[in-house]
């Protein structure tokens, strides 16, 4: 009986990791309001399940703070017209989105590139 249960147990353990890693928008972001954040891209990750940018943002006191900008999966973003080659480390972008409940996070609703191009997923 133990030998028959082992594949089931291994399957349950293996399937639990991806489920725990995925997160819900309403749990992590305040959809009742939008914020605007402008900064220089320091990292770009076009990955699944969530692509993301890291940007350096200057606060009112002149300090540089790192913000995490979360987005949809790379395929979702490409279908929405996000040409990955339009984004580069060092570019300044303006991000409008839902603020995260964790400080320094935002879920992208639209982005304005340095040339004024606006993209929305």
How many distinct beta strands?
A: 6
Low-pLDDT regions: 12-22
Shape: globular
Overall radius of gyration: 18 Å
Describe this structure in words.
- This protein is α+β, with helices and mostly antiparallel strands and 121 residues long.
- The chain has one domain (22-119): OB fold (Dihydrolipoamide Acetyltransferase, E2P).
- It has three helices and six strands; from the N terminus they run H-H-E-E-E-H-E-E-E.
- It has helices at 2-21, 25-28, 74-79; strands spanning 35-45, 52-58, 64-70, 92-99, 105-112, 118-119.
- It has a five-stranded mixed beta barrel with strand order 1-2-3-5-4.
Key terms for this structure?
121 residues; alpha+beta; OB fold (Dihydrolipoamide Acetyltransferase, E2P); 5-stranded mixed β-barrel; 3 helices; 6 strands; globular
């Amino acid at each position: 009986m133990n030998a028959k249960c082992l594949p089931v147990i291994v399957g349950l353990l293996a399937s639990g990791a991806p489920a725990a890693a995925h997160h819900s928008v309403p749990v992590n972001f305040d959809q009742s309001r939008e914020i605007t954040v402008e900064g220089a891209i320091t990292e770009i990750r076009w990955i699944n399940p969530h692509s993301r940018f890291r940007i350096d943002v200057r606060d009112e006191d002149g300090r540089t703070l790192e913000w995490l900008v979360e987005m949809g999966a790379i395929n979702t973003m490409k279908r929405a017209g996000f040409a990955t080659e339009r984004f580069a480390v060092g570019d300044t972008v303006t991000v409008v989105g839902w603020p995260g409940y964790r400080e320094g996070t935002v879920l992208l609703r639209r982005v304005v590139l340095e040339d004024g191009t606006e993209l929305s997923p």
